[in-house]
# Entry
Amino acid sequence: MTIEVTIRNAENGSNLNMELEPHTTIEDIIEGAAEFWNKEAGAYVLRRGKKLLKGQSTVMDAGLKNEDVLELIPDPEGG
Amino acid sequence: MGQSGEADRWDRSRRVGWLDVDSVLRSHCLVVGAGALGNETVKNLVLSGVGKVTLVDMDHVELSNLNRCLFFSDVDASGRVAKAGVVAQGAMRLSPHCEILPLVSRIEDTDLDWGLFDVVFGCLDNIKARLHLNSYSRHHGIPYVDAGTDGSRGKLQVVLREGPCLQCSMNRSHYQVLERRFSCTGEDFSYYEPPMAAEVTTTATMAAMQVKEGLKIISNKEDGCIRDVMFYDALRNETLVLELEIDEDCPNHGM
# Structure
């Protein structure tokens, strides 16, 4: 069964609604959201509340639920 | 020495209850990267009393580094002087008791005696070198404190002997830019992306947090270290500490 979640862009506060299949991975969500917002190639992570979601986890593994709000955060790699 | 302790360089440090100044004075730290984070991290280590620092960096100073690097000058930039040497000289002027060993090299090309180090600090600008440092530190059982910045944002992760490592926090987006260098300059190669924004206020903040975590480790206060991943956003006035689990597929675990 698909679920609908909101992805928040940590850089500008905008939101994106995504419909997800149970087998969709966190990495797929990151790529989809980054592409939607035309983000530059770079490292990103996704959080739900206080938890950083594991890239290879699926929607089912991560226990994502309908109407969850996730945040896409750029992972700074400069030194 | 008078009661006020004015003649003791470390008097004010000794008044910090949790800080084990004698252990700090005996400690040997590895710092990899002598860019903006590396300048600040070495400065903080030296002023905190660390006895020895091995500093590894392959680059030379560029004019565009001068908006954020404490020890670099126009003369260093015009002379294309190696960053590691400039930082070492500047830091030893701040505190001559500290011995700094600069190595002009990529970390992947070094042959270090890892058993010498109490803490490893990653002040790097690319994921590939970070992963190298993460896995070597873990393999040798040395705590690794990694920081990264991008404009007004920063990230800090403390990798202890137990618990998740840097690689556990990564996903496909990291591997797609594995070899991209994000902010530094100096090596003679072409960029396919514009250089990243860099602010001294962010790098100084992240380096201060990085060294604070290192001092906790040296002072045997690991329980007080950041256990997960910390993200800092100066424009949102936000510091987020996100929980991170060991990734069972991470090659640094379960070996």
